[in-house]
Amino acid sequence: MKSTRPELSREFVAVHKRRRIIDAMAELSAEQGYEATKIADVVRRAGVARKTLYDNFDGKEEVFLAAFDSAIDELAAQIEAACEEAGGEWADRVAAGLRAFLTFVVEKPAAARMCLIEAVSAAPAASTRYDEAVQRFVELLRRNAPASKGLPDTIEETLVGGVAWILHQQIRRGEAARALDLMPELTDFVLSPYQGVAELKR
Amino acid sequence: MDRLPRGRHGLSPEFVARNQRERLIAGLTEALYEVGYKKTTVSLIGARASVSKSDFYKHFESKDECFFAAYEAAIERIRGEVLGACSRHEVGGWSARVRDGIAALLTLLAADPALASISLVEGLRAGRGIYDRYQAAVESFIPYLREGAPEAPDGGPVPEATDEAVVGGIASLLGRRVLAGEAERIDELLPDVLEFALTPYLGAVEARRIISAG
To answer: Among A31, B19, B40, B120, which is disulfide-ready with B175 (CB 3.0 to 4.6 Å)?
Structure first.
């Protein structure tokens, strides 16, 4: 085939195609579920040849996992940046991280749906990856919250799990666009255990 | 679940059929825990249950159908156990009710890892739309937490999102431990889970008093 875009390097095109495949998987699994999504749908949506997909990925599950990883990396980076920008007060940092999470749900509803809902039940490998992602956010909260002496060791796990659950529900109700409405209640939910322990010590 | 005696035993056909069905459900639940959904074949379920393949198909059209029945049975068993423990308390004993419900849940899951696995991990991994049932099951506990709950320590009702996040957070923690292969030790999480569940309603001081009172 004669290239019509000679200015684009082969490498650039390859990366771009891979990106399109990943994005198509994220969109389709959010729209119709992972199980119903076929490779044929993905290549059609991405506008690539079937062979291109198989040159890049082993199959459907690997595309999904790549899409999942890419979305989680982006989400984690946004949360970390927000925490940094919020300054030195732990409560400001945690609230900023939470706001970044909710903002991601508003701005990237398909990616959020894929990460929070589809991944849990997509395939065994995906649910393991989901668990690793939860662990990543658990550690992020642990780093930014006050050292949780006097709180259960599992407190960050239940808090992250609780926030994820509330967002599941919000997305499933078709209200991802209004996720930021949850900010006051979720901030209270996440901060209050740490504040409660501070009161105990007084 | 033990198989029934062979030959003439005077048991009604309905009884035999129900017993077989229950054994198949138990067989699938165990197999799922041990080898995952893909490798849980009808032959394996039958072998576990001591039920022939042809008898399997008298009860279920497919492995999926047996799986759905097993998932429902698992949820019903958990719900029955938790609500049974809760209902031993009169109105007003909110904290004792929640404490006993959570204790019953963790005790049951630790005693039966296959049950913990199908309800919280392998059931979801099997896909097949079971996620909706999981979600409904988790949600169904929210009203029991909310009912008769005290106001927040600083006044005013505890927000609805907190009720939901508490239940969802507990389910998530338990699922993670089952996935890590630690179902047998899930009851060790009791103090943590209780503190997480009670503190939003009672404050840290009162929550700890109740937990240490046992």
So the answer is: B120
Q: Which residues contact A146 (CB under 8 A, 6 or more apart)?
A: A90, A194, A198
Smallest Cα distance from A198 to chain B, Å = 10
Alpha-carbon distances of B8 from A120, B1, B5, B14, B24, rounded to whole Å: 48, 20, 8, 15, 22
Q: How many residue pairs from chains A and B have C-beta atoms closer than 8 A? A: 116
Contact A164 B173 (CB under 8 A): no
Nearest-CA residue of chain A relative to B178? A131
Neighbour-count burial of B34, counting CB atoms closer than 10 A to its CB (0-12 exposed, 13-18 middle, 19+ buried): middle
Cα–Cα dist A95/A88, whole Å: 12
Average confidence (pLDDT) over B98-119: 96
Can you tell me which residue has the tokens 């400001």? Answer: A92
The pLDDT confidence band at residue A94, using thresholds 50, 70 and 90, is: very high
Name, in order, each residue with C-beta under 8 angstroms of A168's C-beta and a sequence gap of 6 or more. A116, A117, B135, B168
Domains for chain A: give ranges and CATH numbers: 10-201 (1.10.357.10)
Q: Are B199 and A127 in contact (CB < 8 Å)?
A: no
Sign of CA dihedral A116, A117, A118, A119: positive
In chain B, where are the structural domains located? 67-213
Tell whether the model's pLDDT for residue B127 goes beyond 90: no
- Cβ contact A155–B192 (<8 Å): yes
CATH classification of B67-213 is 3.40.50, yes or no?
no
Q: Distance from first CA to last CA of chain A, Å, rounded?
A: 75
pLDDT at B176 over 90: yes
- What are the tokens at B48? 């576990």
Q: Answer yes or no: is pLDDT of A178 > 70.
A: yes
